[in-house]
Design a protein that fits this description.
By secondary structure, the chain is an all-beta fold. The strands form two sheets. Strands 2, 4, 5, 6, 9, 10 and 11 form a seven-stranded mixed β-sheet that branches. The chain has a four-stranded antiparallel β-sheet with strand order 1-3-8-7, with no helix packed on it.
């Protein structure tokens, strides 16, 4: 069991960069494959990126491929999402999730953080 907490969201200009973090006050992130999701106003929550427990393998949604990088620091119990070349379409609440990562696919679990707001606007 983990208690996930995201941070790092803020207002950023188009073309800018931002790094989100996710940690837990309970348990170990290294016990899980981890993922990032986002939910824009009026839209369904969508998958953004996933990473295996040992960071050997990652997977991305097509809309963020080449712009976002998911990484993890198991020694410090932190998950990251580096977001570059941001556009207004990236505006959303971003959530981390503890789930399963297998054969290049991430399957979300039931443990979600509270989310962090990312707003891309000039």
């Amino acid at each position: 069991q983990v208690h996930l907490m995201e941070s790092g969201g803020r207002l950023v200009q188009p073309g800018g960069s931002l790094r989100l973090s996710c940690t837990t006050s309970v348990g170990l992130l290294s016990d899980y494959g981890m993922g990032w999701y986002r939910q824009a106003p009026g839209k369904e929550r969508e998958f953004v990126a996933g990473i295996s427990w040992n960071a050997v393998s990652t997977v991305y949604a097509g809309s963020v491929q080449g712009r976002f990088i998911i990484s993890r620091d198991n020694a410090n119990n932190i998950l990251y999402l580096q977001m570059n070349s941001l556009t207004a379409e990236d505006t959303a609440v971003y959530y981390c999730n503890a789930g399963d990562y297998y054969a290049g696919r991430f399957r979300h679990g039931d443990q979600w953080g509270q989310g962090t707001q990312v707003t891309v606007s000039s």
